[in-house]
């Protein structure tokens, strides 16, 4: 038995080495990259404290290409805003295969409620079972940064290739790591990164959800103000940092999508 365990450990791949396959975003054309940079130089400061509606209208008028609206399914505010301001945008959902069942149910309901906008479900190169076999069981526990890289960061990078920019659900109120986040910036590939909810609090978000009668993720009513993978998300106490339940078993605070 000891020899078997030793062989199993030897056969496990170093988690710093991702599986073979596409992992990067295709480069933008020089023209779109230059226009994106110009837009950020001109508008980032002007949009820093703008309303969600103003930011989305700006994106509709100025973005020099297709836009992806990223949805975590924690809430569906961005889907509703996109319906009103970016009707040609596509929805992008990172299906890590570790989500709560409730999160996947919300994704299905989004497809039903917003049939005019395509929902792209991005997945990692390896299935959950394949990852266990190649990197050892519960990589999310032994090396959560590597797990997030393979199941979130790299799939997002590949999936953003067709787009000139992407809309995120970042809020400054979500914690100290996001307290100064801009409403408009460039990501590492030169794409526009647009965050219309940036000035919103949890209360603002809940009010918008109620007013628009949006799809509600049931766990947000059960102590989960920030929802990620089921394996790495715990409920938080009232008044606690909304993201305190994310990777509570480690010092990790971000998945890497916004770094």
List keywords for this structure.
alpha/beta; Rossmann fold; six-stranded mixed beta sheet; 9 helices
**What's the CATH C level of one domain?**
Alpha Beta
Can you list the strand order of the major beta sheet? 3-2-1-4-6-5
- The CATH topology label of one domain is Rossmann fold
- Gyration radius (Cα, Å) is 19 Å
Supply the helix-strand structural class: alpha/beta
Q: What CATH architecture label of one domain applies?
A: 3-Layer(aba) Sandwich
Q: Provide mean pLDDT, rounded.
A: 91
- By DSSP (H or I, 4+ residues per run), the number of helices equals 9
- Poorly predicted runs of 5 or more residues: 1-8
Organism: Corynebacterium meitnerae
Pfam family, one: PAPS_reduct
Pathway: Sulfur metabolism; hydrogen sulfide biosynthesis; sulfite from sulfate
GO molecular function, one term: metal ion binding
Q: In short, what is this structure?
A:
With 259 residues, the chain is α/β, with parallel strands linked by helices. It has helices at residues 2-11, 30-47, 52-62, 77-85, 101-113, 128-135, 139-142, 144-159, 202-212; strands at 67-70, 90-94, 119-122, 165-167, 184-186, 192-194. The protein has a domain at 29-200: Rossmann fold (3-Layer(aba) Sandwich).
Describe this protein's structure.
- It contains nine helices and six strands.
- It is α/β, with parallel strands linked by helices.
- The protein has a domain at 29-200: HUPs (Rossmann fold).
- A six-stranded mixed beta sheet has the order 3-2-1-4-6-5.
- Helix 4 (77-85) links the parallel strand 1 and strand 2.
- It is globular and about 50 Å long.
- 36% of the residues are buried.
């Amino acid at each position: 038995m000891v020899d078997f365990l030793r062989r199993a450990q030897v056969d496990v791949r170093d988690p710093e080495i991702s599986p073979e396959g596409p992992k990067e975003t295709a480069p933008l054309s020089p023209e779109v990259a230059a226009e994106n940079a110009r837009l950020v130089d001109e508008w980032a400061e002007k949009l820093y404290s703008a309303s969600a509606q103003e930011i989305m209208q700006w994106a509709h008028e100025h973005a020099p290409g297709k836009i992806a609206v990223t949805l975590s399914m924690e809430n569906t505010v961005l889907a509703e805003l996109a319906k009103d301001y970016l009707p040609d945008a596509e929805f992008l959902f990172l299906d890590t295969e570790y989500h709560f069942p409730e999160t996947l149910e919300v994704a299905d309901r989004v497809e039903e409620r917003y049939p005019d906008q395509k929902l792209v479900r991005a997945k990692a190169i390896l299935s959950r079972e394949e990852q266990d076999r190649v990197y050892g069981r519960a990589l999310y526990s032994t090396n959560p940064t590597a797990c997030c890289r393979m199941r979130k960061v790299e799939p997002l990078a590949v999936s953003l290739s067709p787009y000139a920019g992407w809309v995120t659900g970042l809020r400054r109120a979500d914690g100290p790591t996001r307290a100064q986040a801009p409403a408009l910036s460039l990501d590492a590939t030169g794409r526009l990164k647009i965050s219309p909810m940036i000035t919103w609090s949890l209360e603002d978000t809940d009010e918008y959800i109620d007013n628009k009668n949006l799809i509600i993720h049931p766990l947000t009513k059960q102590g989960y103000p920030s929802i990620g993978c089921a394996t790495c998300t715990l409920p938080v106490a009232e008044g606690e940092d909304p993201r305190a339940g994310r990777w509570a078993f480690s010092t990790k605070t971000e998945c890497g999508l916004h770094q």
